[in-house]
């Protein structure tokens, strides 16, 4: 069986994904970001087209359930831009939802994830290609544990990878202890996001040694203080033999985020200087092809 990514237009063989923005958002809405939503179809089309014009092949949207994914728009955006798009199921931190929404899914969370991965999201027929969950600041609260247990069950039933929002890049080892230790998820199926927000090279090394995938994403105003450490962090991991664990993303969360074209226009040349073209191609092409195909 040929491994394939589950895109919004159907399955795509892993070796045809091209250059991958491994963590981004075309659409996202949250009560924590009032008035700063990504909800404009024209803007999403422009960002996706800009990414494609710079050689981008695939964008993985980490926007989970209940946060304005606009799934019905994604197939047309993908088709018109020529860029593959992967959509997510999953659940973010509790603060991003109303109590009513959380109550409505609490007793069926694993089934919700499995259904969106195997049958489609709502009545769109679009299947999700990953499960997005979230940790807390330096730990896991009750909501995070509950959500990760549902994600692990859905992973075991489908094989889909689990992408984890790490709050300010923290809680890495707690996440791995729960998902990979107690719940038996293979580390190679776990993607740890936002590691650039906490440039703790020792923790990065421990996560890589455990076999997890490490996603470095941004830049943004909120995390600008640590953005400049990303090349050093990536070089340290590559020099230690963990280049095959690394992923890159633009993580466009608000309209003022530089976003996915910036990833290729400005971040890619900077990282070529730090890592060399061969390692950077591995990070942008080979690694996400392995991680997102199931």
UniProtKB/TrEMBL annotation:
Superkingdom of the source species: Bacteria
InterPro entries according to UniProt: Metal_Hydrolase, Phosphotriesterase
Chain positions found as N6-carboxylysine: 132
Metal-binding is among the record's keywords: yes
Keywords, comma-separated and alphabetical: Hydrolase, Metal-binding
Xref: Gene3D superfamilies: Metal-dependent hydrolases (3.20.20.140)
Pfam families assigned to the protein according to its UniProt record, in alphabetical order: PTE
Family: Belongs to the metallo-dependent hydrolases superfamily. Phosphotriesterase family.
Name of protein: Phosphotriesterase
Organism: Streptomyces violascens
């Amino acid at each position: 069986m040929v491994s394939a990514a589950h895109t919004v237009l159907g399955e795509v063989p892993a070796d045809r994904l091209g250059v991958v923005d491994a963590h981004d958002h075309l659409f996202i809405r949250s009560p924590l970001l009032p008035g700063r939503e990504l909800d404009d179809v024209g803007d999403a089309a422009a960002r996706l087209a800009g990414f494609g014009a710079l050689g981008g092949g695939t964008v993985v949207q980490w926007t989970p359930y209940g946060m304005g994914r606009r799934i019905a728009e994604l197939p047309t955006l993908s088709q018109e831009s020529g860029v593959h798009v992967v959509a997510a199921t999953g659940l973010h931190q509790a603060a991003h939802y109303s109590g009513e929404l959380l109550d409505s899914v609490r007793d069926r969370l694993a089934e919700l994830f499995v259904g969106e991965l195997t049958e489609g999201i709502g009545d769109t027929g679009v299947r999700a290609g990953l499960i997005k969950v979230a940790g807390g600041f330096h730990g896991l609260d009750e909501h995070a544990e509950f959500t990760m247990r549902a994600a692990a069950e859905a992973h075991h039933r489908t094989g889909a990878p689990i992408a984890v929002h790490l709050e300010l890049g923290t809680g890495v080892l707690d996440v791995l202890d729960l998902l990979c230790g107690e719940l038996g998820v293979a580390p190679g199926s776990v993607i740890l996001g936002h590691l650039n927000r906490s440039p703790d090279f020792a923790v990065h090394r421990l996560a890589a040694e455990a076999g997890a995938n490490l996603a470095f994403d941004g830049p943004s105003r909120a995390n600008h203080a640590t953005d400049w450490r990303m090349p050093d962090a990536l070089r340290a991991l590559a020099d230690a033999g963990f280049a095959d664990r690394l992923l890159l993303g633009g993580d466009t969360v608000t309209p003022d985020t530089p976003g996915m074209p910036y990833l290729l226009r400005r971040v890619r040349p900077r990282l070529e200087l730090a890592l060399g073209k061969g390692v950077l191609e591995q990070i942008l092409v080979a690694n996400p092809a392995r991680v997102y195909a199931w």
